[in-house]
Amino acid sequence: MSHTARLAELGIVIPEVVPPVAAYVPAVVTGRYVYTSGQLPMRDGAMIAEGLVGSDVDPEVAKDCARQSAINALAAAASVIGSLDRVTRVVKVVGFVASAPGFTAQPAVINGASELLLEIFGDAGRHARSAVGVSGLPINAPVEVEMVLEVAD
Amino acid sequence: MSHTARLAELGIVIPEVVPPVAAYVPAVVTGRYVYTSGQLPMRDGAMIAEGLVGSDVDPEVAKDCARQSAINALAAAASVIGSLDRVTRVVKVVGFVASAPGFTAQPAVINGASELLLEIFGDAGRHARSAVGVSGLPINAPVEVEMVLEVAD
Amino acid sequence: MSHTARLAELGIVIPEVVPPVAAYVPAVVTGRYVYTSGQLPMRDGAMIAEGLVGSDVDPEVAKDCARQSAINALAAAASVIGSLDRVTRVVKVVGFVASAPGFTAQPAVINGASELLLEIFGDAGRHARSAVGVSGLPINAPVEVEMVLEVAD
Lengths: 153, 153, 153
Prior knowledge:
3 copies of one chain form a homotrimer.
Chain A: H1 3-10, E1 27-30, E2 33-36, E3 42-43, E4 46-47, H2 59-81, E5 87-98, H3 106-121, E6 128-134, E7 143-151
Parallel strand pairs in A: 5-6
Antiparallel strand pairs in A: 1-2, 2-7, 3-4, 5-7
Helix pairs in contact in A: 2-3
């Protein structure tokens, strides 16, 4: 099954790309790779949640934020490669979690992104990953996700 | 116009590379890519500002720090590829902003780096980017910027 | 001398790969590159230290944590490329240090990783690097290290 057919089966709609909040582009393709910009949990033009995970934002909500950020990263990738069917491997994901003091469950949060990638891409979605807790993110987002994807020539 | 001619027109001088503060090198070239080390806002041997953005450091000063860090990243790249005229695309920029609690305007700060890259490289300077707020940076720098550049063979 | 011979000479044992704490894989190989996941300072199944560097964790202990995280990153790489003798260059290291407020000696901490790479790989171990202070890391780790390695075809 193609990746786009799998997306349809899962009922996941890849939105129009979220415009960058500053002087850069959503994604760059170079050789066989796509680098996405860090993506925030915007859905239908609004942030799903705001603030620090572990105080302002519940970890389960933050996991959904990570999932939405990953969807937006795929939207960014699709905007430069045309179709996600060209993706041959998700290489790397970095997940930044705006974390309240003492919050250390970043992996469970970023699983929202990782599990989505496995659902969509299967074995090609098995990626290397770093999850870290940061002190704050753009426009008070609780999560930011960036990716490197390998694509067919 | 070549990238170096554009630098001259803009009056931007790429300095000698800032020596790493530890056991690594300023940049590595591999295949058609240059990876720079994270660069700090050193100018003429001194840090432009120190501390957390949003409390110790004004966001406008921090934006200038991001611009200087980007200049230092280009110096690092030039030290391994010879001339910046070989750059065919700025692929990715990551900007770390040492952020006071509650500071969430990292994009405006890192625009200091992004806008510089657009000025110098034009369309080839349009890059993917992540901006995040961190709790502290080496030797109390307010900003750290790293890049991946694509270069001609 | 091969890299594995050098490891033996140094008395460094590359352990079995530490299983990811979530839905991803330890490392991905793509083209001539290996991307590792962020690695924590696990040794013999337990974290060497826990908490924030500069308050809970002494910087010298944190440096050992960075060294162990780098060893685990090499274990992750070895799990996908077979032998570390295939490594032709350490391209990039990112070191995240869970930092107490005001702690800015991240470079000295991450030198634990960088110095290890130079010891093992010699000139091929000279890498680009970013070191940043973050507010918290998975399962209360003081340090997390990720790498990009270039490998022979």
